[in-house]
Input
Amino acid sequence: MKLEGVELRRIALPLVTPFRTSLGTQSERTALVLKVVGDEGEGWGECVAEDEPTYSPEYLTGAAEVIRGFFVPALAGLDLNPASVGHALRHLRGHPMARSAVEMAVLDCWLRARRTSLTDHLGGVRPSVRVGVSVGIMETLDALLETVDKHLTAGYARIKLKIEPGWDLEPVRAVRETFGADVMLTVDANTAYSPGDIRHLARLDAYGLALIEQPFEPGDLHAHATFAARVDTPVCLDESITSAADAADAIRRGACSIINIKPGRVGGYLEARRIHDVAAAHGVPVWCGGMLETGLGRAGNLALAALPGFTLPGDISATERYYHRDITRPFVLDDGTMAVPTDPGLGVVPEEDALEAVTTGSEWIPAVP
Ligand code: SMG
Ligand code: MG
Output
């Protein structure tokens, strides 16, 4: 497949409710939506970088710049397929979220032309996957309990609580005491703690959590390993893992016993699968993380989460938890699970009027080296 060019859009989707984490509060999701146009048809991708470089060093304007200035030119004139796209971008360092968006759109286009679904291409083995929901930091415990109640009533298979210093033991205790021992409960600190907090965080062992996600700085595997040796609760890494090599290293050093895999964070669905394979070889369970994706990323993440090693429920919630109207058809929860799309490629496309309504800027990038 030969690339003709890429339509790059910036979108802004209002969130149903603001989402607060230790990194800040979001009330809308801005993202880049890419449409690649090639001689075999079209394909869609999404860049999950945020406006500011808080979750990771990437940010939306920078991602657009690197796609326009380096990634699209590097693909011009090549015969593109799933193997060659990664190879063609190999000499360009970093920018995994921008890279992932480009790879996703090329994969979607290539798979559509071959009438193959992304999940079949990746090796998915399940028609539907169990999913959870990520609950932000709230003003009050009452507001938290009300939100958790709503999600459990909806049928989510797991509740993840965002934590930060000052909002950790109490909310976890309140949720555990209110909803009982059977609820699968996890916490995610988004790097808000330092090694000096290890004693404090170890008190979370009292609440039967399924995992504690990314308490410390991304580069501090030593702190995670020290903590993991100290607590009974499994330690899960998110921000620290940006490649299969990182995953192997973190596992070897005892820094985690579970991995959150996000295609955007690791440079695409193909590297995500490699992390899955490395983890599986070490007997480490993985689950699919979320970046408040649009329906495009949600479809891709469901395809990925159907792989055999994804044994824990992912942060892939129903559309209504995020958006009043998404750019694709809505995804719905069915008894704690969501169906994996089976149509070719991602299995969904943006609805033109919905995409138009949330577009805040658009450009055409011709594929010239
Ligand atoms: O997509 O449901 C979702 C969001 C899940 O909590 C979520 N994501 O660190 O895992 C994480 C966060 C990152 C996004 S908020 C900065
Ligand atoms: Mg996380």
Summary: The two ends are 16 Å apart (CA to CA). Residues 21, 23, 55, 134, 188, 190, 238, 289-292, 315, 317 surround N-succinyl methionine (ligand 1) (CB under 6 Å). The domain at 3-115+349-366 is CATH 3.30.390.10 (Enolase-like; domain 1). The chain has a mean pLDDT of 98.
